[in-house]
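User: What would this chain look like folded?
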Amino acid sequence: MTNQSLWLTGDPEADALLSADDNALLIGMVLDQQVPMEKAFSGPLVIARRMGGRLDVARIATMSEDEFIELCSRPPAIHRFPAAMAKRIRQVCQVLTEAYDGQATNVWKDARSGGEVKANLGRLPGFGPDKAAIFTAVLGKLRGITPEGWRTAAGYYGEPGTFRSVADIVDSDSLQKVRETKKSVKAAKKASPERDPAVRTGP
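Assistant: Here's the prediction, encoded as structure tokens.
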């Protein structure tokens, strides 16, 4: 399957790498937390440039932890928490190298259902249920990876016609709509105080 062009960062070179390289797309998803989406998904290009122009998963896997942290921490750092994210990326690259022949595509290529795609993703370092669901939606909506049940596996993020995550970004307009959704969800959570665990609500 030919990968379609993605529009996740607004930077043509960063988006071209994400469009062409599933390893870059997966690493972008690893970085997609506690920073703007554009920053997260620009990270793979920054890493590739600092590695001489190629995002080399096998090389990252064999680099020392300190060496890769230094690479990711140089200004501008790839993330607001560059050391922690460098460790996570390196762990993911080690799993890709050891279990998937160094290719993220192999994580989902032979999956027979959306549930299997999500389960495979969920076994990667840093991919909890929510991140695995979002990336299942990314694969379905932006990559055309649509095994039976993929929308169910992606849950909230797999629903059509929505603007909830990076899976729904195809241009600047949809990027803005996703930003607005994220802002409203965050505001709703902030406005709803957590239940005091000391207060009993049952018999």
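The longest helix spans residues 172-191. If you want, I can go into more detail on any region.
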